[in-house]
Design brief:
The chain has about 375 residues and is an alpha+beta fold. It contains 8 helices and 16 strands. Helix content is about 20%, strand content about 25%. The strands form 3 sheets. A 5-stranded antiparallel sheet has the order 4-1-9-10-16, with no helix packed on it. Helix 4 (about 180-190) packs parallel to helix 5 (about 205-215). The longest helix is centred in the middle third of the chain and has 13 residues, at about 180-190.
Length: about 375
């Protein structure tokens, strides 16, 4: 299950994180496309269904005006990043999309080919990758209490990054090249590594070694040392009576991997690495082979977080901060957290409307028999 995420990267950061090397050896980047109808993506530490979040998909599904830029690094790929409404609205739905009565935030993997709402997008290649810093899940204890956890890709620290570069030794084509040394130092410094502490032999490099450094620096899905979570999804495009279009998506879920099933028995289908993302987004990649990518994975880390995240209106950075469950006293919130808590108590700017179920409810509501 996946009922809440955090996504804090700005549009340009998401685009950079989704860069990859093409067959010609160029680094290419997807184009950011604003959602039609004026719908906006807002960076958030606590993003709930019905909001818009960044989704990566193939540009073959839409007509995209090619970007003109004087920036030499901006070479466009055949991917697009666009904010989409979380909670799939099928194209056949009549009436206002807000009147659609079924919760389709998640799509169970075992029902993808049985439910028309998912089967048709799947068969037409409308596969997508939902991007986030991580997602939240709630562990229910025997007494009924729910403890939230934040689940995400592991993040490499400086020491691990340095280990990745440890193969760079002194078997060099041109060990005296000051230009090569400078390029590598600059790349290391951009990764916040202390290049001055590395041995001189480790910062000399041939063209191949420079390429290795460049690939480490530009690893797919990484921005400033943070690895963006890539979840498999399906999307559809609903058109209103006035011609306005709404792009919406569901996150595909699978049985939880044994490493994290103590938290919850379901998890998002994680695409682990550039190769899996490429296959999932490639419309020409056979469906039966693409579905082999939908399985439990054990590539994630997790930690407990404050129950303040239970309220979907709470948006403080405290939402993803690790807490100590053995502490006797509750962890104090930061100044921004206290301000947010006071603001929520006062109800400033909030409409008087029923709140969504806040903690870990199963949003994978069984779909009633729907008309195609």
């Amino acid at each position: 299950m996946c009922g809440r995420t955090a996504c804090t990267l700005a549009p340009e950061q998401v685009v950079e994180a989704c860069g990859r090397m093409n067959a010609s050896g160029q680094w290419v980047y997807p184009q950011w496309r604003d959602a039609p109808g004026g719908q906006k993506y807002y960076q958030s530490y606590n993003l709930a269904p019905s909001l818009h979040s960044p989704v990566l998909f193939s540009s073959t599904h839409i007509q995209v005006a090619r970007l003109e830029s004087s920036e030499p690094k901006i070479v466009e790929s055949d991917w697009v990043v666009q904010p989409m409404h979380w909670g799939l609205i099928p194209k056949w739905h009549h009436g206002d999309y807000r009147s659609f009565e079924y919760k389709m935030n998640n799509a169970r993997s075992d029902g993808l080919l049985n439910k028309q709402s998912f089967k048709k997008p799947l068969e037409t290649g409308q596969r997508c990758v939902v991007l986030a810093d991580g997602y939240f899940e709630w562990k229910t204890s025997k007494d009924g209490k729910k403890q939230p956890f934040f689940i995400y890709f592991p993040i490499k620290d400086n020491k691990e990054m340095a280990q990745d570069l440890s193969h760079i030794k002194s078997e060099l084509v041109d060990p005296s090249s000051e230009e090569n040394k400078l390029k590598i130092k600059e790349d290391l410094e951009e990764k916040d590594l202390d290049a001055h502490k590395l041995a001189d032999s480790e910062i000399k490099g041939s063209n191949k070694e420079l390429k290795d450094i460049h690939e480490i620096k530009h690893s797919f899905g990484v921005y400033n040392g943070k690895r963006i979570l890539t979840m498999a999804g399906l999307f559809d495009v609903w058109t209103g009576t006035n011609g306005d279009k709404l792009f919406s998506y569901s996150v595909i879920t699978v049985d939880a991997h044994p490493d994290i099933e103590f938290i919850h028995d379901r998890m998002p289908a994680i695409l682990n690495g550039e190769e899996e993302v490429c296959k999932w987004l490639d419309c020409s990649y056979p469906l039966n082979e693409a579905l082999t990518l939908i399985r439990p994975t054990n590539c994630l880390k997790y930690h407990p977080v404050s129950s303040a995240v239970n309220d979907s209106r709470y948006k403080s950075p405290d939402c993803i901060k690790e807490i100590d469950l053995t502490a006797v006293t509750p962890k104090k919130l930061s100044a921004s957290g206290n301000f947010m808590k006071s603001w929520l108590k006062a109800g400033v700017g909030e409409e008087k409307r029923p709140l969504e179920k806040s903690v870990g409810e199963d949003r994978e509501v069984p779909e009633k028999k729907l008309k195609s």
